[in-house]
Structures are given as C-alpha cells and as structure tokens.
Design goal:
Distance between the termini: 30 Å
Shape: globular
Radius of gyration: 18 Å
Structural class: alpha/beta
Number of strands: 4
Strand order of the largest sheet: 1-2
Length: 148
C-alpha cells in the first residue's frame, strides 16, 4: 500500500535502519523502486521476493534477521492487518530472541457521515469490502490461536 511504502521510507530516513522489503510477483521490487525514489540508500534495502502471504513473510524474513544480527524488527503494515501480523511474527521471532515492534499505518477513516433516509437500506460496496477484510483478519487470528 502507499501508506506502508511511505511509512517505511520515513522510518528508514529518520532512524537510518535497514528496510527489508518482502513480497512476491514484483511487489518487493516495486517497493524498492519507490524507496529509492524517496532517497532511501540502496545499501539499506534488502529484498525478499518470495513471500506470498503473512506466514511466508515470517518464514523468509527470519533468516535475514538472524543473518544480519537484528535484535529488534519493526513490522510496518496496514493497521487492520497488524494484530494478525504480530501474532505471526512474535511466535517465531521471540523463540530466536528477536523483539518484534508494531508500526501500523494506513488507518481507515470514514468520510463524514451524512444520513440519507432514502438510501439507508442500500448496501454500500465499501462497507462490504471492509467487512471482508475484517473477516479475513479475524479468521486468520483464530487459526493461529487454535494452532497454539
């Protein structure tokens, strides 16, 4: 997301940290291009182009974190996705002595609500999208909890 990319670039420039960009099908490379365009030094960018989902982000980034000797990693993702991301990362990383810190971004703020009695009963496509996202996240967290 644009918010995630922007937030990652801001954090890198502010704290001079490495940025691990993870995502398959060109996603990591797309983020790298954005970061370079924002002035992030190329030698501070690490690409992980294989991960296709949250579980794979955990799996493929962990060896990078261990090889680099990181004691802390900061997860930058959309706010709605942060609880499930933290559940996934904390489980594996804590065992290896790596602290995981959340840095949520991309909060959803609804437009000002203006009641319209004539349209109140009509489903809103954005609300359907948001409820689908919420169900995906909650069911993913339930799965993690059940697999403990």
């Amino acid at each position: 997301s644009v918010a995630r990319d922007r937030t990652g670039a801001i954090l890198q420039k502010r704290y001079k940290v490495d940025v691990v960009l993870t995502g398959y099908n060109g996603e990591a490379e797309r983020m790298q291009k954005y970061m370079l365009g924002q002035g992030v030094p190329a030698d501070r960018i690490i690409l992980e182009p294989k991960a296709a989902n949250t579980k794979e982000h955990v799996k493929y980034v962990l060896p990078i974190a261990l090889d680099m000797g990181y004691k802390k990693v900061t997860i930058v993702t959309n706010a709605y996705h942060m609880p499930r991301s933290m559940m996934n990362f904390e489980k594996s990383y804590k065992e290896k002595g790596i602290e995981v810190l959340p840095y949520p971004c991309g909060y959803y703020t609804p437009k000002e609500y203006r009641p319209n009695p004539k349209l109140e009963w009509v489903p809103d496509i954005r609300n359907l999208e948001l409820s689908t996202i919420a169900w995906h996240e909650y069911l993913g967290m339930l799965e993690l909890w059940l697999m403990k």
